[in-house]
Amino acid sequence: MFHLSIFCAVAVSVLHLSSAYSPSIVPSSRSQFLKTIISSAVATTILPRSSIASDKQLNLTPSEIAAIVERDMVENSFLANGKLTRSIYDEKATFRDEIDTYGIDQWIKGTSKLFVGPPGSRVSLVDGVKANDKEVVFKFEEDLMFNVPFKPVVNLSGKVVLERDEKTGLITSYREFWDQDVKTVLKSAKFK
What we know:
This protein is α+β, with helices and mostly antiparallel strands. Helix content is 36%, strand content 30%. The protein contains six helices and eight strands; from the N terminus they run H-H-H-H-E-E-H-E-E-E-E-E-H-E. Strands 1, 2, 3, 4, 5, 6, 7 and 8 form an eight-stranded mixed beta sheet that branches. A hairpin with a 5-residue loop joins strand 5 and strand 6. It is globular and about 45 Å long.
C-alpha cells in the first residue's frame, strides 16, 4: 500500500508540475524537484486510508449493506473486537453505547483493546439484519470477556441501530440499546 501511495504521489506531482508551471518556472534543481515529490508523498501517506472517497462503498442497496453488517457480526464478531467493514461507515460516524459516545477510530481501538475476541467472547446475531435506505438494525446477544486480569465475562443483549446518510448511504451513527442497565450487566460478571 505504501508503494502505491508513493507512486500516486509521484504521478500527481509530475502532472501538477507539468500542467501548473510554465517551462521556465519548473524547479531548476534536482533537490527542489525531489522536495516537491517527497512532500507530496508524505501528504498522500499521512492521510487516513479510508478518507479517500474511492475506499468507501457508497449508496449500497439495503440488502448489500445488510449482508456486510451480517458478515461483520457472524464472521468477524465485530462487537467484541472492533473488526468492522470500515468502508461502509462515514469517517465522522459516532458510536454510542449505554456508557459513552466515541469516534470511529476511538471505538475500533477501544473495543479491540477492552475485550478478548472469540473464542473468549461470544457474539450472536438474533433474528438477522434488517436494512432500508435510512437505517440498519439488528439484535444481538453476547458474552464479553474483558482483557483485564481474571478475565471477567459479562452477558448482555440488545439491539444496534445504524443510521445511514441519505446522500451517500454510509453509516453515520452507531447506537447500542441494551436490554439491561449498566449495573445489571456489570453484576453478571463471571470469572474464568
